[in-house]
Design brief:
The protein folds into 3 domains: about 80 residues, Winged helix-like DNA-binding domain superfamily/Winged helix DNA-binding domain (Arc Repressor Mutant, subunit A), CATH 1.10.10; about 130 residues, 2-Layer Sandwich (Nucleotidyltransferase, domain 5); about 160 residues, 2-Layer Sandwich (Nucleotidyltransferase, domain 5), CATH 3.30.420. It is an alpha/beta fold and about 400 residues long. One of its GO terms (molecular function) is DNA binding.
Length: about 400
């Protein structure tokens, strides 16, 4: 690639970073944009000037507060322009589809959700998702023709080069490019990513990772994955598989994983596995919600199982923290808020990470719960439209 082409890609990536931050945070000063994106003030000023020239952002009449309560002149704030049209978000999990219709600022106006086993039925799941998007638009009173873009997440890595599912985790989606297929059904641009990356974006912009630049978001539910944020931007890796800690091998002769390998961490700590370990000791049928409630109530059996799971996850995260030195580890998914799980993760990071690395990282539960993915997909759509380039 030529030097000019590389510079254009870099400028496009920096533009997306600015627009994504404005989409998540609302009006911000140029200085705060520089802090939030990790870009220099000169770069941010140049990008904002260009975006104002194209009408994508504008200055507000309101003024901000000086950084950290200083006494300087209140800064001028810039905000995303509010053009006509709307966006939608589509969260596809292993067992559900959730959609949201929102205005161009990302304000959600209507939602729909359904339980569905999507793993073996890719085309059918996408048909259902498209139908739900159209239904949510009607519920929100938004004309179908006003839809500008859709953000989408799937519970598997997407190959950034081919836009296809990059592993065998979803057998019914093999060789299927989810974003392209949903785009064909709806007739508007679709910006797709995996669920952990989208959850990371949501927690970065709206949740427990706000204000952080280097974060690992861990999603523990029916599977285990991570979204990595470096310098305020998602790090996806060459083929889109960065953060797949669920497939770190922890036992050569372990259980066969859905990815095709044996002994993956996910086979030891995924929610169905943990519930299966606990169920024989309880008369009531367990769910992730009940397991979390029992943990909070101090149930000894639940605390032991979740603590052991947290220590196993924390061991893998300790190695990752040694390599990346993040400011925060945010744990989401259906079991993410469990105190015993968080304690186990913290204990392993303290034991296995370098002392200075362990001391500098905060371990916290995600604040958005099961809304992280749908919130992130809407932000993905807003940023994609605003940038006018693939998000």
């Amino acid at each position: 690639m030529s030097i000019s082409g590389s510079l254009e890609r870099l400028r496009a990536a920096n533009t997306r970073a600015v627009l994504t931050l404005l989409a998540g945070e609302g009006p911000m000063s140029r200085a705060d944009l520089a802090r939030g994106t990790g870009l220099s003030r000169t770069t941010v000023s140049s990008l904002v000037t260009a975006l104002m020239a194209t009408g994508q952002v504008s200055e507000t009449t309101a003024r901000g507060k000086p950084h950290k309560g200083g006494s300087g002149r209140p800064p001028v704030l810039v905000t995303l322009s509010a053009p006509s049209g709307c966006v939608a978000g589509v969260d596809i999990g292993h067992r559900h589809i959730r959609v949201a219709a929102a205005d161009r600022t990302g304000r959600i106006l209507a939602e729909e959700a359904t339980d569905l086993d999507v793993d073996a039925h890719g085309p059918g799941a996408l048909d259902r998702a498209a139908h739900m998007v159209r239904s949510a638009l009607r519920t929100a009173g938004l004309p179908r023709g006003d839809l500008r873009a859709v953000g989408m997440c799937v519970p598997a890595p997407l190959d950034r080069r081919s836009s296809r599912i990059s592993t065998g985790i979803l057998p019914g989606w093999r060789d299927l490019p989810p974003g392209d297929e949903l785009e064909r059904r709806l007739g508007v641009p679709v910006f797709a990513d995996n669920d952990a990356n989208v959850g990371a974006l949501a927690e970065l912009n709206h949740g427990a990772a706000r204000g952080m630049l280097d974060v690992v978001f861990v999603k523990l539910s029916s599977g285990l994955g991570a979204g990595i944020v470096l310098g305020g931007r998602l790090h996806r890796g060459t083929s889109g598989i960065a953060g797949e800690i669920g497939h770190v091998q922890v036992g050569e002769d372990g259980q066969v994983c859905r990815c095709g390998n044996r002994g993956c961490l996910e086979t030891v700590v995924a929610a169905p596995r943990l519930i299966g370990l606990l169920q024989p000791a309880y008369d009531e049928e367990l769910s992730t919600e009940l397991v979390r409630a029992l943990d909070s109530a101090g149930d000894a059996g639940v605390r032991r199982v979740l603590s052991d799971a947290g220590r196993a996850v924390g061991r893998a995260l300790a190695d990752l923290c040694n390599s990346l030195n993040p400011e925060g580890v945010v744990v989401g998914g259906s079991l993410g808020p469990s105190p015993s799980l968080l304690e186990g993760i913290r204990a392993s990071i303290d034991r296995y990470a370098q002392p200075d690395v362990a001391a500098s990282v905060t371990v916290a539960a995600g604040q958005l719960g099961d809304r992280a993915e749908i919130t992130g997909t809407v932000a993905l759509a807003v940023a994609g439209v605003a940038a006018r380039v693939p998000a």
